[in-house]
Specification:
The complex is a heterodimer. Chain A has helices at about 35-50, 70-80, 100-115, 130-140, 195-200, 240-250, and strands at about 1-5, 10, 35, 55-65, 80-85, 115-120, 145-155, 155-165, 165-175, 175-180, 205-210, 220-225, 235. By secondary structure, chain A is an alpha/beta fold. Chain A has one domain (about 1-230): 3-Layer(aba) Sandwich (Rossmann fold), CATH 3.40.50.620. By secondary structure, chain B is α/β, with parallel strands linked by helices. Helices cover about 25% and strands about 25% of the residues of chain B. Chain B has a seven-stranded parallel beta sheet, with helices on both faces. In chain B, helix 3 (about 70-80) packs across helix 4 and helix 5 packs parallel to helix 9 (about 300-309). The longest helix of chain B has 13 residues, at about 15-30. Chain B starts with a strand and ends with a helix. The chains are: A alpha/beta, B alpha/beta. At the A-B interface, helix 3, helix 4, strand 7, strand 8 and strand 9 of A face helix 3, helix 4, strand 5, strand 7 and strand 8 of B. Strand 13 (about 235) of chain A pairs parallel with strand 16 of chain B, so a sheet runs across the interface. The complex binds flavin-adenine dinucleotide (FAD) and adenosine monophosphate.
Chain lengths: ~260, ~300
């Protein structure tokens, strides 16, 4: 069984981002970039399936700038066998390659590679869209198991447990299928130095976005990007009695 | 021009977020229709047919819609789509699951989690964990949108008289089936629509200790939330998580206990009207956004607070 894992190069989750002075987007110069955290969980899950003898090959793919090779190398250090970069100079966070275009590109790669399963993140932490997996499964006519916290592979089907607003839902899906990861699916490993060295020698194919014939013209134009209003906080109370007094008599949120 | 809202419901009740989504729809156009897709849904239809501010309820009743599987509901939405300029759903796990699938089938780029309607083509949405707000203008003919419930007031659940129309089901896509739901039962108010939320973090220390958070919540009629760390550690179920990748809340009062205030947590609660933080570390970032910060050991302060209220 072959597993495709789409990963996105995003601003590291620890970075406090800043809006560009001209309000056109986010300042990305000299900012630490990483694999989108949900995609790390996706690679980890795929690699564990390989280690358990259930998968034969794990392919990491990304749509992004030349530098996204760094994140594909990270994926291979965790255990992906090879990688494909669909290279583009268009922005991938806002006002460039949008989830629908990513899904179309991924569909072209699925048609080419014929995986049995695609495991990807539920959400990019830059655009916070939470769309691409659902869109890819629609374009392929496949089943979708979103927000997964548990996967059980059967023969021609799979069981997925999903983190939903009311609790945990279990579905059975026909395969091939798309899975999107939630935080509790697994805890990704740290790649060890020997694995990082080994990853440098693994195959990384680079395709030009144009070659896949997908139109990257954005459907959503960015009118502006602004800082949210800042909240005036920082007030302190000395003890529980003062807190109760303030909540009742100043904020009037308790009676 | 009409706007279609996809109702979120469990066949017996309409979920509150549907009412906020209708308000967003009405800011686009006054002619709003509501799709209720499910099975054995007398209760949900009863409720839907009283909602204020909608002209029509579309009823899609079929066994394969009973569990709200995305593959089946998307087919119904796609069939109806040509009658509408905009289709909206709550940005809940239900809407997030179904809407992008329908959007891709319609070849439109969905606009996720809008926090404001600027005009019929232009919307605001938080990005980068709420560190920025993007104003985006859509060029698609049909716009599919998910709505952040906390930034739109709900319409009234009663007093409306929409007409009810049956829509033909589209059959079972045959891709997925429902196995089970492990529902987290609670008599407390729903987290995303509660007036007061009490949340606990890693500082609470264990599932057993979480009882002191719950006791305080029950005393003041609050919902209970949590940070990711508290969920990961197994103190509480996953659906308690507040934040960038969990639930977004904006109650009148949010009490954060033993939570440091990571940006991913703030993304889900910083629009609350009044924020209280109880933390033993006076430098915890949560204090920067709290209206009332109490530097204290939660194991002393929380029981004291509970007993004095
Ligand atoms: C992709 C991704 C998505 C994420 N999504 C979310 C999300 O949606 N929601 C979310 O919450 N987080 C999310 N996180 C995690 C986030 O980055 C933080 O790790 C998390 O919010 C920390 O939880 P915490 O504040 O409970 O724990 P900590 O940061 O460990 O803070 C515990 C606090 O408790 C205090 N404390 C300890 N003991 C006591 C005591 N006895 N009395 C009083 N105070 C005490 C400490 O001083 C400390 O401030 C996400 C992270 C990633 C990478
Ligand atoms: N440019 C990209 N390259 C590869 N995968 C992507 C890209 N953008 C999004 N994805 C995948 O789609 C998931 C959801 O992203 P989004 O719909 O943008 O929130 C991510 O977690 C990735 O797995």
């Amino acid at each position: 069984m072959k597993i495709l894992v789409p990963i996105k190069r995003v601003v590291d989750y620890n970075v406090k981002v800043r809006v560009k002075a001209d309000n056109s987007g986010i300042e990305l110069a000299n900012v630490k970039m990483s694999v989108n955290p949900f995609d790390e969980i996706a690679i980890e899950e795929a690699v564990r399936l390989k280690e358990a003898g259930k998968a034969t090959e794990v392919i990491a793919v990304s749509i992004g700038p030349e530098k996204a090779q760094e994140q594909l190398r990270t994926a291979m250090a965790i255990g992906a066998d090879r990688a494909i970069l669909v290279q583009t100079d268009a922005p991938i966070d806002l006002g460039g390659v949008e989830p629908l275009a990513v899904a179309k590109t991924l569909k072209a790669l699925v048609d080419k590679e014929s995986p049995d399963l695609v495991i990807m993140g539920k959400q990019s932490i830059d655009d916070d869209s939470n769309q691409t997996g659902q869109m890819l499964s629609a374009l392929l006519g496949w089943a979708q198991g979103t927000f997964a916290s548990k996967l059980e592979l059967g023969d021609g089907n799979l069981k997925v447990t999903r983190e939903v607003d009311g609790g945990l839902e279990t579905l059975e899906l026909k395969t091939p299928a798309i899975i999107t990861t939630d935080l509790r699916l697994n805890e990704p490993r740290y790649a060890k130095l020997p694995d990082i060295m080994k990853a440098k020698k693994k195959e990384l194919e680079v395709l030009a976005a144009e070659d896949l014939g997908v139109d990257y013209t954005p459907r959503l134009s960015i009118v502006k990007v602004e800082e949210p209003p800042t909240r005036q906080g920082g007030g302190k109370v000395a003890d529980v009695d003062e807190l109760i007094d303030k909540l009742k008599n100043e904020a009037k949120v308790l009676s | 021009m009409s706007v279609l809202v996809i109702a979120e419901h469990d066949n017996s009740e309409i979920k509150a977020a549907t009412l906020n989504t209708i308000t967003a729809a009405r800011q686009i156009d006054g002619d709003v229709h509501l799709l209720v897709a499910g099975a054995n849904m007398d209760g949900a239809m009863q409720a839907a047919s009283q909602i204020h501010g909608i002209a029509k309820v579309l009823k899609a009743d079929a066994p394969e819609l009973g569990h709200h599987l995305a593959e089946n509901i998307a087919l119904v939405i796609v069939e109806l789509a040509t009658n509408y300029t905009h289709i909206l759903a709550p940005a809940s796990t239900f809407g997030k699951n179904v809407m992008p699938r329908a959007a891709a089938l319609l070849d439109t780029q969905q606009i996720s989690d809008i926090s404001a309607v600027v005009d019929a083509d232009t919307f605001e949405r938080p990005v980068y964990a709420g560190n920025a707000v993007a104003t985006v203008k859509s060029s698609d003919a049909i716009k599919l949108i998910t709505v952040r419930g906390t930034t739109f007031d709900p319409v009234k659940a009663e007093g409306g008289q929409p007409e009810v129309e049956d829509v033909a089901p589209k059959g079972d896509a045959g891709l997925s089936s429902f196995v089970g739901l492990e529902a987290s039962e609670s008599d407390r108010p729903e987290l995303t629509s509660a007036d007061i939320v009490v949340s606990g973090g890693r500082g609470v220390g264990s599932a057993e200790n979480f009882a002191i958070i719950e006791k305080l919540a029950d005393k003041i009629g609050a919902a209970v939330g949590a940070s990711r760390a508290a969920v990961d550690a197994g103190y509480v179920p996953n659906d308690y998580q507040v934040g960038q990748t969990g639930k977004v809340v904006a109650p009148d009062l949010y009490i954060a206990i033993g939570i440091s205030g990571a940006i991913q947590h703030l993304a889900g609660m910083k629009d609350s009207k009044v924020i209280v933080a109880i933390n033993k570390d006076e430098d915890a970032p949560i204090f920067q956004i709290a209206d009332y910060g109490l530097v204290a050991d939660l194991f002393e302060a929380v029981p004291e607070l509970e007993s004095k209220l």
